[in-house]
């Protein structure tokens, strides 16, 4: 199969970790007889520097013409403490989500038995936890009307959702639950927010169409607690954009490191695959960042964008072996010898190509 991949490494550690994902993709292609063609695009702070625009038109047409987008991270400390900056790198990510219609962000949370003691939570709580967070990605406060009033002294962001937006993400969540353990948790704040009451109303309406799915409803504050109190309760969790942003960062500590979690954003046009971690500027260029989240995002790309499940599984097996053997970056080494970003990337690529059972 020919795979047309848009490569958007972005800022900070993005380029280093995407390079390792590319090594894994190339190893899979050699092993399974596929052909990957990469086209590079600028996004984030590096695109602002070059074009004054964090998601230039050129990058957008490249994404539209590709079968999948491999994304690194965006963000730059130059913008973080400057609330007056007219453009920000993060707007590049929001623009790409909106323009590609990526309304669903799938963030699987898995635990690796070799790493359960790396989690800040008790081993018996996390061992075996395995759930999928589905975050709505193109609505809510992120995209609702925002602005300033009273000479700039009052600010507002609006959480707005239409029936259409809520129904399509809920249906997707019901479907994913159907393919998993058939348990869906709808997370909202329906005791306070009108937008949440619309979510809950629509979810209740859809329930009879999916009779084999057990649905429960949880307020977001309670969900934040249950995620770390009892992560094994969850199978599929669906929620709106802002709640999903917060809960998935929280959920990442269940696995032991932010550097392990991958994500897929899917919707109307080309799907996008990215690690859930950010640009981690303190580590940029040092060859120390954990590439596993980016490599697992490439596994999701094979599975979700190309339906190549065996290929995705080959990457997952190689990653699991690297973790079992302790061939890891310093965030996971806990005092033991650690390896660089590129060494881990090479090791995993070699494992995929040469030791694939
Ligand atoms: C994420 C990130 C983004 C978000 C930022 C970089 C805009 O935190 O993908 O979770 O808030 O959605
Ligand atoms: Mn986030």
List the helices and strands and how they pair.
Layout: E1 2-10, H1 14-32, E2 35-40, H2 45-51, H3 57-64, E3 68-73, H4 77-80, H5 90-99, E4 104-110, H6 123-126, E5 130-136, E6 146-149, E7 154-157, H7 163-179, E8 183-188, H8 194-206, E9 214-219, H9 220-229, E10 236-239, H10 241-255, E11 262-266, E12 271-275, H11 292-306, H12 309-324, H13 330-333, H14 341-354
Parallel strand pairs: 1-2, 1-3, 3-12, 5-10, 8-9, 8-10
Antiparallel strand pairs: 4-5, 4-11, 6-7, 11-12
Helix pairs in contact: 1-11, 1-14, 7-8, 9-10, 11-12, 12-14
Residues 90, 93, 245 line the site of 3-isopropylmalic acid.
Give an overview in words:
With 357 residues, this protein is α/β, with parallel strands linked by helices. It has two domains: 1-119 and 262-357, Isopropylmalate Dehydrogenase; 122-255, Isopropylmalate Dehydrogenase (3-Layer(aba) Sandwich), CATH 3.40.718. Helix content is 44%, strand content 19%. It is built from 14 helices and twelve strands. The radius of gyration is 20 Å and the shape is globular. The model has no long low-confidence stretch (mean pLDDT 95). The structure holds 3-isopropylmalic acid and manganese (II) ion (MN). Manganese (II) ion is lined by residues 245, 249.
């Amino acid at each position: 199969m020919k795979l047309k991949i848009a490569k958007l490494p972005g800022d900070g550690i993005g380029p280093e970790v995407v390079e390792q994902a590319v090594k894994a993709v190339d190893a899979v292609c050699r092993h399974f007889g596929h052909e990957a063609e990469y086209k590079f695009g600028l996004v984030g702070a590096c695109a602002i520097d070059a074009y004054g625009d964090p998601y230039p038109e050129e990058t957008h047409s490249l994404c539209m013409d590709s079968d999948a987008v491999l994304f690194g991270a965006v963000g730059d400390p130059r913008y973080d403490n400057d609330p007056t900056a007219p453009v920000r790198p993060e707007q590049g990510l929001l623009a790409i989500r909106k323009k590609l219609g990526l309304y669903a962000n799938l963030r699987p949370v898995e635990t690796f038995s070799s790493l359960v003691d790396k989690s800040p939570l008790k081993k018996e709580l996390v061992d075996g936890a395995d759930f999928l967070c589905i975050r709505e990605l193109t609505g809510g406060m992120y995209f609702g009307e925002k602005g300033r009033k009273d000479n700039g002294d009052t600010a507002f962001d609006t959480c707005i959702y239409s029936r259409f937006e809520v129904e399509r993400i809920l249906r997707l969540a019901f479907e994913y639950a159907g393919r998993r353990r058939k348990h869906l948790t709808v997370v909202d704040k329906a005791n306070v927010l009108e937008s949440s009451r619309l979510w809950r109303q629509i979810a209740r309406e859809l329930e009879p169409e999916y009779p084999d799915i057990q649905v429960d409803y949880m307020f977001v504050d309670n969900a934040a607690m249950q995620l770390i109190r009892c992560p094994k309760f969850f199978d599929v969790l669906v929620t709106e954009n802002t709640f999903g942003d917060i809960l998935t960062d929280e959920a990442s500590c269940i696995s032991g490191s932010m550097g392990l979690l991958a994500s897929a954003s899917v919707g109307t046009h080309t799907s996008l695959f990215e690690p859930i971690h950010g640009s981690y500027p303190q580590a940029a260029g040092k060859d120390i960042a954990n590439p596993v989240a980016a490599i697992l995002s490439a596994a999701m790309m094979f599975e979700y964008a190309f339906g190549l499940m065996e290929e995705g599984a080959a990457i997952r097996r190689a990653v699991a072996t690297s973790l079992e053997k302790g061939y890891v970056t310093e965030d996971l080494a806990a005092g033991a010898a650690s390896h660089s970003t590129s060494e881990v990337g090479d090791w995993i690529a070699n494992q995929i190509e040469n030791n694939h059972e």
